[in-house]
């Protein structure tokens, strides 16, 4: 501990630490830095607050938590041997506690105790271990909050307030000498329950039914209900103090008796070692990398396809925020995936900053300008951007379709999908996979068991009985496979590089595994085109406008239809352009049916012209306009002829275009000047948007520079608060809290002398607001009615007006 005198308080224990140890405490519990404590006493006080202790307990692994729980039921203070005995037992439990388990506990206990000490949850030497009071209150047993160990109160706690007469009856029934002193009676009963030989003799006389009652209570909960006239076995136990009354209908098994029945163990199953992550398959690492690379390419293509769907303005944003169930279903159908998978891709695009709401009056989701920049990158760089966004995002798509605390449905892109623990769980799951040999696929159940051991108190229980961390871990395993983080269940080499080497190294490993883009397709006689692999971007974009995707997989099949050809013509292409494009990029001759289809659609394209009247139809062929008017399907458009070659409509131009196209015509929109309007896809973008910032789980872990500055400030404040100060011309040291008092002349002379000798002095100072404080300063310069000095309390150089200094004194030796 750095001192020969045992510390009497947590503050003294922290004061005895070196700077590195204090920095370790602040790193492990960053909430203690908000704001930086003024001194060690403030640090100790803050470290003992309920909120901070709860947060620290939640970050303990299972064995460190079991160690704290054992200290909570041990005497305060407790020697190291007593703590070890509570974890290993006394070895007289009929072999239930194996020797190897005891050896594992003995080996692991110093590390667990070191963790508790580092986080200021335990302090004191090994012969006087103390759990901080708040942690003891949280982990100690009570009827409202049973102890995690399943132990009840001590005999002294359970008999508090019991009448002396009742104590005498218990002593007589247990065969103990009578005493009129209640304290002596409690001491005698406690000594009986902790004496293994005498306790064994007492239990040998117990009825079998009474032993069965004890068996039900021994591992907790230790409380039971009794009737006014209990059964003989319960009465036998109650008469001898093995069951003590808590209320008129409740009894409890006292802690000392339970520990005897448990052979001295505080926990039924101590877990000093973390569960081993087991493997379910050993695969070829190259096959794993190839499978992951194929899935990574599919992930990039899926996100690109999703955003192309919403290029012209995507679904409307719900009033409460998010995507409606109907729109999510439509998106899943378009991507040919299940709705939970569609929600994952939507949330991934949003987390990567590629998708956002446009902020218009009729608010819709649309790609962001960052999407265009993302498209210009190579496939491996695009995957790295997606994977990095997924690793750090607090958005949790697995919650979509569930309900919040108020019973409201959680929707994709909604405001309530952030879970601050998600990034930490993802990184931990991938770290466990990284610890396995290359090509090893883990057993998910052992992964969950390991995570529960590492953070047993984290995550509230869910409706399905699984805590949040476990659910996020399962979602992580599934999402990793979808995203290409893993291949066939094992971690890919490019992912290992992303976690340790960075994005550039990961992209370099992934690039050789991705297929090269092709510059050709194979045209078929059935009006289809087969792309035997990924296509170059210009080819893919043009083919996507000219044909509809019919099926995807190792090869993509495109189908040419009148509607798809008209779409290309609407985008400004001519029939000659389309013929030349197909002839250039097809490895097979252009089928005659496809040429006929293009020429036929092009011949009719633009024959009708749509403009704004509200809207009108213009056509040089009067017979065609006559057909439209005669068609019953045009009734909804409310058309009327205003000239031999012109029809007027009440519908707007867009509705009129859609209506005539549904009737089988190929109209084209025109401008006020009579020119054909060319529509281009991908014109709608949101204003510049940044990716959503992850919601932190708590205060960020401070860096080394901040930790060093914080430790220096705390030390300086502690020196100022605890240094021994002497009043001038007075022998005894000044009492705490009093300001030194000197005349202005004495003040000036003292600080000038300190500046010349480089010594440190103690001053009283009153600021402009009238607040008084004590300071420990090292004067550097005194001139013009001001003293410039290094302030040890603030850990910085400051300037003080001499007229605001109430007095100055040297520090006592």
Total number of helical segments?
33
Query: How far apart lie the N and C ends?
Result: 24 Å
Task: Please give the share of residues in helix.
Answer: 40-55%
> What percent of residues are in strands?
5-15%
Unreliable stretches = 460-464, 727-734
Q: What is the CA-atom radius of gyration, in angstroms?
A: 39 Å
Largest sheet: 5 strands, mixed
Mean pLDDT level: 86
Q: Which structural category fits the helices and strands?
A: alpha+beta
* Secondary structure: number of strands: 25
User: Which strands sit side by side, in order, in the main sheet?
Assistant: 18-19-17-16-20
C-alpha geometry: extended
Description:
The structure is a single chain. The chain is an alpha+beta fold. Helices cover about 45% and strands about 10% of the residues. It has a five-stranded mixed sheet with strand order 18-19-17-16-20, covered by helices on one side. Strands 24-23-22-21-25 form a five-stranded antiparallel sheet. Strands 12-13-15-14 form a four-stranded antiparallel sheet. A hairpin with a 4-residue loop joins strand 12 (about 520-525) and strand 13 (about 530). Helix 21 (about 420-435) crosses helix 23 (about 470-485) and helix 27 (about 560-570) packs across helix 29 (about 590-605). It starts with 9 loop residues before the first helix and ends with a strand. Residues about 460-465 and about 725-735 have low confidence and may be disordered.
Tell me briefly what this model is:
This protein is of the alpha+beta class and 813 residues long. It is 45% helix and 12% strand.
